[in-house]
Amino acid sequence: MLFDTDILIWYFRGNAKAALVLGKASLRQVSIITYMELLQGAQSKKEIKLIRAFLKDFDFKMLPITENISHRASVYMEEYCLKVDMCLADALLAA
Asked: What is the pLDDT of residues 20-53, one digit of tens each?
């Protein structure tokens, strides 16, 4: 299962439903974009270490940005950036 930033943040904040979803997943994946969004929200080096440890302990597979994802994200940006104020990270995650 590919996890978005929101679910992981809810987990970090102690949300029981997010913890249940994470616990039940047999395959946990996160995009490099989601990882960078988590780092962007970190308040200290300690929090960065906690994020890395969490992803390692839960055996998350980190997915890279591929050429195909980059192309699809650019198509999304062309189509939606003016309509719905889509940002780069959202386009990459959607792709």
From this structure: 999 999 999 999 999 999 999 999 999 999 999 9
pLDDT above 90 covers a percentage of the chain that reads 77
Q: Which of left, alpha, beta for 59 (phi over 0: left; psi -120 to 50: alpha)?
A: left
Structural domains of the chain in order of their starting residue, each with its CATH number? 1-64 (3.40.50.1010), 65-95 (no CATH)
Long-range contacts of 13-18 (CB under 8 A, 24+ apart): none
d(CA 64, CA 83): 27
Contacts of 39 (CB under 8 A, 6+ apart): 48, 51
